[in-house]
């Protein structure tokens, strides 16, 4: 009997060691598999990190992980980027191209909530999508006869138009509307128009100015390439081309063609466009408050060497609130801002 008990105890001990060995083998096998596939965990982390589009609005010059996430999803549609994490011209073009291909999006080159929702719809639909169908990808730069580089993305809300960068001759914004603000004339003519986003912002600016007891009037907004050509030709014929180019833009080089600019005035200066407007109560208020509505004084005093234009306190340019605040708070020009 005693021998039987010892035999059963020995068998129990052997079974315990065999089970322990098997458990260790399984653990070692699992560890070995994990070490052989380290990218599995990384892939899971990446998928979790980019399973949703950024909630924060993004635009040109932004940097960081949110931009990387946006690029990740744009790459699912066929876009490619040489620089990760920078909202540069490539990303601006991709967003612009995407917006143009959607019927119900304002085209700006800026990633906003409406663009986010539409991107989600397109990605989830798994339908065929063709990058460049709305706006062909930039190629080798073209130049005007005057040697000015022709802009490849005129829809960009932060587009730089000056004596070095020209809009295409055939560019006409397709979202031009008349802002509901006072004009010193009643005719329905092109200079009443602005692009939708700029017009909406101008209405808010004018409404708040009116509440302050100010009399602002919109004088000149959109101007076509052909109209600018006529104006510049007349000035050049009277004063010579070199002199005319000091205060007038060549065709294609005028911000008015973007539909993002509006000249404003007041009865105090007899509705004219002159530097004295900056000394009026309306002009001072505009300078102090334009940023709240996404506008900048495009040609500020003391920056003539950079802008190549005289001081124009009446010339408002829409760039969006974020860029406007950064530009005006730093007392810089759009040229200096984009150079950064």
Subunit arrangement of the protein: single chain
- Total helical elements: 12
pLDDT < 50 runs, ≥5 residues: 4-10, 23-48
Q: Would you tell me the structural class of the helices and strands?
A: alpha+beta
**Strand and helix order:** HHHHHEEEEHEHHEHEHEHH
The shape is: globular
Terminal Cα span: 93 Å
Largest sheet, in brief, is:
4 strands, antiparallel
**What helical percentage do the residues reach?**
40-55%
Number of domains: 2
CATH fold type of the largest domain: Muramoyl-pentapeptide Carboxypeptidase, domain 2
CATH architecture of the largest domain: 2-Layer Sandwich
CATH class descriptor name of the largest domain: Alpha Beta
Kindly report the average pLDDT value: 88
Strand content: 5-15%
Descriptors:
12 helices; 9% strand; alpha+beta; Muramoyl-pentapeptide Carboxypeptidase, domain 2; 2 domains; Muramoyl-pentapeptide Carboxypeptidase, domain 1; two-stranded parallel ribbon; 340 residues; 8 strands; globular
């Amino acid at each position: 009997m005693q021998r039987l008990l010892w035999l059963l105890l020995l068998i129990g001990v052997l079974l315990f060691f065999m089970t322990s060995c098997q458990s260790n083998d399984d653990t070692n096998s699992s560890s070995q598999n994990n070490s052989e596939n380290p990218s599995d965990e990384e892939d899971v982390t990446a998928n979790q990190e980019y399973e949703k589009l950024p909630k924060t609005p993004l635009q040109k010059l932004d940097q960081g992980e949110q931009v990387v996430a946006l690029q990740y999803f744009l790459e699912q549609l066929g876009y490619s980027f040489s620089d990760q994490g920078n909202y540069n011209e490539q990303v601006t073009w991709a967003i612009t191209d995407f917006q143009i291909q959607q019927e119900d999006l304002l085209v700006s080159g800026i990633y906003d909530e409406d663009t986010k929702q539409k991107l989600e719809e397109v990605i989830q639909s798994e339908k065929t999508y063709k990058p460049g169908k709305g706006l062909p990808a930039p190629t080798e730069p073209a130049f005007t006869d005057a040697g000015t580089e022709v802009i490849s993305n005129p829809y960009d809300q932060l587009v730089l138009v000056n004596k070095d960068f020209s809009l295409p001759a055939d560019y006409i914004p397709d979202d031009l509307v008349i802002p509901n603000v006072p004009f010193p004339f009643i005719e329905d003519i092109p200079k009443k128009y602005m692009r939708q986003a700029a017009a909406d912002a101008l209405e808010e600016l004018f409404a708040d100015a009116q509440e302050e007891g100010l009399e602002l009037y919109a004088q000149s907004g959109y101007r076509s390439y052909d109209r600018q050509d006529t104006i510049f030709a007349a000035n050049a014929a009277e004063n010579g081309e070199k002199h005319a180019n000091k205060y007038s833009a060549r065709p294609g080089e005028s911000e008015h063609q973007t539909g993002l600019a509006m000249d404003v005035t007041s009865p105090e200066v007899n509705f004219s466009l002159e530097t004295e407007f900056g000394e009026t109560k309306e002009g001072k208020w505009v300078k102090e408050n334009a940023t709240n509505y996404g506008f900048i004084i495009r040609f500020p005093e003391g920056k003539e060497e950079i802008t190549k234009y005289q001081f124009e306190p009446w010339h408002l340019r829409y760039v969006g609130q974020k860029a406007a605040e950064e530009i005006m708070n730093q007392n810089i020009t759009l040229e200096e801002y984009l150079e950064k």
